[in-house]
Amino acid sequence: MKKQKTPVRPRPIAPARKEKKSEKGIAKLVPRTLLSDPFNREIIKRLQEDGRLPYSTIARELDTSEGTIRNRVNQMVDAGALRIVAVADPMALDHAGYGFIGLTLTAGAEPRVVAKPFVDREEVLFVLFAGGHYDLLIEVLCKTHEDLRDFILEMCYGQADINSVVPMIGLEVFKYQLKWDDQQWS
Questions:
Q1: I want to staple 142 with a disulfide (CB 3.0 to 4.6 A). Which of 44, 97, 155, 170 is the partner?
Q2: What pTM did the predictor assign?
Q3: Strand pairing partners for 5?
Q4: What single-letter DSSP state applies at residue 149?
Q5: Could you tell me where the beta strands, DSSP code E, fall in the chain?
Q6: pLDDT per position as a tens digit, 8-54
Q7: Which domains does the chain have, with CATH numbers?
Q8: Is residue 103 helix, strand or coil?
Q9: Distance from C-alpha of 44 to C-alpha of 76, rounded to nearest angstrom
């Protein structure tokens, strides 16, 4: 006999903390309760499949009101826990200058400070403070290889806080996923 799935019911969540960006302009922390709430996860799961899915459809699927869905989505967006965006395959955009840059910082360099100029650049898709071989991992998309070269020369070489630069040029994307499933939430 097939086990019936118990519907996830919304439970009240305290209003999200409104945290100001630091003077360095780095992203704020997201309250864990927003992402650990099973009802919010169900909303996110549906929006990951289709970011344009009407709130009324999500509400019907989750057996709740459209207003509840709208409020939950707005709360997660306001807290910085959720962004609804269109994602394009970078290699399909006819941009030849795609890749990652691994940066190792000099001793004593502050990763947030070094990351800030990259965060502010339009060509940069992703900036990660990492543990491991690189201190920062930067994903960059430029129109041409020459534009990518110029970006790397301008932003990376000759910077006092950057010890080493390892450009990795993208040749083909096999998977580009910006969503998580239930196993990754656990």
A1: 97
A2: 0.61
A3: none
A4: H
A5: 97-105, 124-129, 136-142, 162-169
A6: 555 444 444 444 444 444 444 556 677 778 899 899 889 888 889 99
A7: 32-79 (1.10.10), 90-169 (3.30.70.920)
A8: strand
A9: 10
Other CB atoms closer than 10 Å to residue 130's CB: what's the count? 12
Query: Which residues fall within 8 angstroms of residue 160, CB to CB, at 6 or more apart?
Result: 106
- Residue 37 CB neighbours (<10 A): 20
Alpha-carbon Rg of the chain, whole angstroms? 20
Closest to 72 in 3D by CA, of 27, 18, 17, 13: 13
Q: Identify the CA nearest to 62 among candidates 44, 33, 39, 35.
A: 39
- For the stretch 112-169, pLDDT in tens is 999 999 999 999 989 999 999 999 999 999 989 999 999 999 999 999 999 999 999 8
Question: Token pair for residue 39?
Answer: 């009802």
d(CA 77, CA 38): 17
